[in-house]
Amino acid sequence: MTSPVLILGARSDIARATARAFAAEGHPIQLAARHAADLQNDKADLETRYNVEVTLHDFDVLEVDRHDAFVDGLPVLPGIAVCAVGKMGEQADNETDTAAAVAVLRSNFEGPAILFGVLANRFAERGAGTLVGISSVAGDRGRASNYVYGSAKAGFTAFLSGLRNRLCKRNVHVVTVKPGFVNTAMTAHLDLPKKLTADPAEVATAIVAAVNKSRNIIYVRPIWWAVMMVIRNIPEAIFKKTSL
User: In this structure, which topology does domain 5-239 adopt according to CATH?
Assistant: First the structure.
């Protein structure tokens, strides 16, 4: 029997596509998000289209003191958990509005990391499981255009690396996903270059393949690996004068 897949942040475009991709392989799906009852249409669509069991679960990534209770309240411990939670915000707002910056940092790093820490302990105790964290190429190097969001993703990337190192001997796998630009509601206001921009279904396909092949770190479009390698290796004396 295929293992249940927990989708955290289930309302996002990437999360919805990922739920469909795993359901297509026969996995039962656990959709977790704030106001989860609003996802009844998603639940019905997945059940009808793929003939899998789908359950809805209220979840707020910022309520870190309730993460243990959330995991323990699931009908069954999932075999795979995908964190699609994220909040980009506007860099200008993040620079001047403390509350805005806090929301971005907590949504992209603190909340996902604490929740994955809880799941990691449960998976390690069981001796099986896969954690999939959606990070970002923005975390590969801090840039003036989005360094608050980027630093939060950098922290999450480092956290996932540490978990992978810790859990590899416990038969628990950790996948770090770096999508690059994606056509979603979160980026709808941006003019994105087509060659560097994926759609949610492409990200979802890459995630399922990474889980099935036990990949560690993936750039959804390989070109991003080359782009970020160049950016990471620009000397700081030059880099600080750029406008990236």
Answer: Rossmann fold (3.40.50)
Print burial letters for 162-180: b (CB count within 10 Å at least 16), e (below 16). Answer: ebbeebeeeebbbbbbbbb
For the chain, how far is it from start to end, CA to CA, in angstroms? 47
Domain positions in the chain: 5-239
- pLDDT tens digits, 29-77: 999 999 999 999 999 999 999 999 999 999 999 999 999 999 999 999 9
Q: Is 149 among the catalytic positions? A: yes
pTM of the model: 0.94
Joined tokens for residue 204: 């979802």
From the list 50, 147, 149, 219, the catalytic residue is: 149
Supply the pLDDT for residue 1. 65
- Greatest Cα pair distance in the chain: 57
